[in-house]
Specification:
Helix content is 28%, strand content 35%. The protein is α+β, with helices and mostly antiparallel strands and 434 residues long. It folds into 4 domains: 67 residues; 87 residues, Nuclear Transport Factor 2, Chain: A (Roll); 134 residues, Nuclear Transport Factor 2, Chain: A (Roll); 118 residues, Glucose Permease (Domain IIA), CATH 2.70.70.10. The N terminus and C terminus are likely disordered.
Length: 434
């Protein structure tokens, strides 16, 4: 028994040494982790501190820049070029050329419009122009900043608020004036006329007490309306007949306007080849010719319009004749398909580059109103041939260009319901013919 006690004493001693070593090692590891964590925290604090300082410096420098510069708002006027405008502020011809070069990839200065805004930023001390801001559109501003002898462009889109709005109105004299009176911009009015161009002739078909409802997005910045988006939906009552259009982007990424049934409002043919005109002579089997002084058939429609008024092809097709054609003077004939052909006579001149065999698309300008041939004044003689037989152009019923697929109908129907709910909330008298 004594032998056993003597043998266990060294073992117990080594166990104590082992436990002590493990404990010391554990304490060392804990201390290392602690100091490493402290270093990481300190590093992060330094990083955050440096970031905050850099942001402070950035905002302070921006504030200093604005305090040291003066902004002058200019507008392009008729007859004054970009060069002339900047030359007034002492910018050299060489620097204006550099500015023009910086702007060119983003905007064609030859397309500036009257009243288009441009901001000139002057250094208050040196009176030198150090930045210009060209307002390209309501949602795009091109900044060009001077850095030494170079100019650097930057295209930005300032934040704006989009608000869906609806405008109601009734026609009293003309649709254009009635819409202007309701605050609809001229470009939106023309867009509406284009939307219904295949169904309504806005210079011939419009009557007093016609009515309209227009839904579109308007853009606001700092409480001020800065522009508008596309027309989203229009309901137009013309001679008690309702015309509706809804803007929709289908599954094939084709955007356009459709009626309530999902049929495209873009027809195979336009309603007429002119936008500004009046009918001076209708299709007739017996019309008195003002020059020949005899009665004979008139197989077309004469549109009176000022000389030089653009003439558009009413549909896609190919030019099969272009040149002088007897009493029709300068004349163009277009084959649209195996069924329809159209003719355009008494033109003053043809569109540049147009020749026999040229392909044209719907709405392309093919010529200009004139008085060539047997004519008493400037007008367009327009005719339509169907299967080789002359027909009355005003009685053509043009089919839609395409119809929505089944896949797109569900989304389109949801859109129609949304627009109709808005219309119902803002009903006006002229739109009760439902």
């Amino acid at each position: 028994m004594n032998r056993k006690i003597k043998n266990s004493a060294p073992t117990f001693k080594w166990n104590r040494i082992f436990l002590l070593s493990v404990t010391i090692s554990f304490i060392v590891v804990i201390l290392l982790i602690h100091f490493r964590s402290s270093d990481d925290i300190a590093a992060r604090d330094k990083l955050i501190s440096h970031s905050l300082v850099s942001y402070d410096d950035y905002f302070e420098s921006r504030q200093d820049w604005f305090l040291n510069h003066k902004r002058i708002r200019e507008h392009f006027i008729k007859g004054k070029t970009f060069y002339e405008l900047l030359a007034e502020y002492g910018i050299s011809a060489q620097n204006i050329m550099l500015l023009n070069k910086a702007i060119k990839p983003f905007f064609d200065l030859s397309k500036t419009k009257v009243d288009q805004a441009i901001d000139i930023w002057l250094n208050k001390k040196s009176k030198r122009v150090e930045k210009i801001s060209l307002h390209i559109s309501p949602d795009k501003i091109l900044h060009i900043i001077r850095n030494g002898h170079d100019f650097f462009p930057s295209l930005v889109s300032p934040s704006k608020i989009t608000i869906q709005t609806i405008t109601n109105g009734e026609v009293y004299n003309s649709f254009y004036q009635s819409a202007i009176d309701r605050g609809i911009p001229p470009e939106v009015i023309m867009e509406i006329a284009d939307i219904f161009a295949w169904d309504i002739d806005f210079l011939v078909d419009i009557r007093p007490e016609d009515a309209f409802q227009v839904i579109l997005n308007k853009y606001y910045r700092k409480g001020k309306c800065i522009g508008h988006g596309k027309v989203l939906a229009v309901r137009f009552v013309n001679q008690k007949r309702i015309h509706e259009s809804f803007y929709f982007n289908d599954s094939k990424d084709r955007s356009g306007y459709y009626d309530k049934r999902g049929k495209s409002l873009r027809k195979a043919f336009l309603k007429s080849p002119l936008r500004y005109r009046r009918i001076s002579s209708y299709f007739s089997l017996r019309r008195f010719h003002p020059i020949l002084k005899i009665y004979r058939p008139h197989y077309g429609v004469d549109y009176a319009a000022p000389s030089g008024t653009p003439v558009e092809s009413i549909g896609d097709g190919r030019v099969i004749f272009i040149g002088w054609k007897g009493g029709y003077g300068r004349y163009i004939r277009i084959r649209h398909n195996h069924i329809y052909e159209t003719g355009y006579g008494h033109l003053s001149r043809f569109a540049k580059g147009l020749k026999k065999g040229s392909r044209v698309r719907q709405g392309d300008v093919i010529g200009y109103v004139g008085s060539s041939g047997l004519s008493t004044g400037p007008h367009l003689d327009f005719s339509v041939t169907k299967r080789g037989r002359l027909v009355n152009p005003l009685r053509i019923k043009s089919p839609p260009a395409f119809i929505l697929s089944k896949e797109g109908r569900e989304r389109f129907n949801e859109l129609v319901l949304q627009m109709e709910e808005i219309w119902q909330k803002y009903q006006i008298s002229g739109l009760y013919y439902l």
